[in-house]
Amino acid sequence: MTQAHLVVKHLSAGYGGFLVLRELTLEAAPGLTVILGPNGAGKTTLLKALAGLIPRQGEVLLDGAALPLGDASGTVKRGLALVAEGRQLFPQMSVAENLELGGWLIPKAERARRLEQAFSDFPKLRERAKQLAGTMSGGEQQMVAVARAMMSGPRLLMLDEPSLGLAPKMVDELLAIARRIADAGTTVLMVEQNVRKALAVADRGYVLERGALVAQGPAPELARSDIIRQAYLGQA
Ligand code: ATP
Fold it and tell me: Which InterPro entries match (predicted)?
């Protein structure tokens, strides 16, 4: 199967009468694309709009076909999975149960196969299969959230600040996981605050400020650009 390609044209979205994103045009080609930008720029809003969780205008095309709006299971069936900020695990359920919930749309036998795959992709989670998700560390919980999203067999995985609040070593581990998922054939679109580390693992990036794109390009070029060096890396 070819790898998924997301194309977004003239996307506008917001809350009530308040427009956050204005006419964004961007794409997530196979590989790992990162969205950078300051707090409140609209990064989370972008992922929510792409997932069809908030009203939007404009085109959102996955491999040329429009993704649905306001239809969570339809969106998953079309191959999109979102790991939202805050992970949204079921804390009183075990790791294995949380993972199984990520496969709620697939037949039982296939779900068991994917669970086995998740445990081989995330060996740390196999050791913790029976542990209640709420008792795990922040990094481990983030890993469960990513593994749960992968249970639906997505073609496009969207990650909202996977490294938020994690210790540096765990940040590296989560970003390496995102890279590995992209290398294994799932297109990844990731929002990150950790600019330097995110650009080190990404193929391409966009910078979003006040709801508009202000820079874009291959990750190494973006890392060298004035806008990134001055605004985000403190190297004027
Ligand atoms: P952060 O890094 O702080 O999460 P962000 O770039 O993800 O920032 P968003 O969370 O998308 O930014 O927020 C963009 C704007 O939309 C902000 O002005 C925010 O206050 C507003 N906003 C976010 N969620 C809602 C909501 N549910 N209702 C109304 N306004 C919202």
Answer: AAA+_ATPase, ABC_transporter-like_ATP-bd, ABC_transporter-like_CS, BCAA_Transport_ATP-bd_LivF, P-loop_NTPase
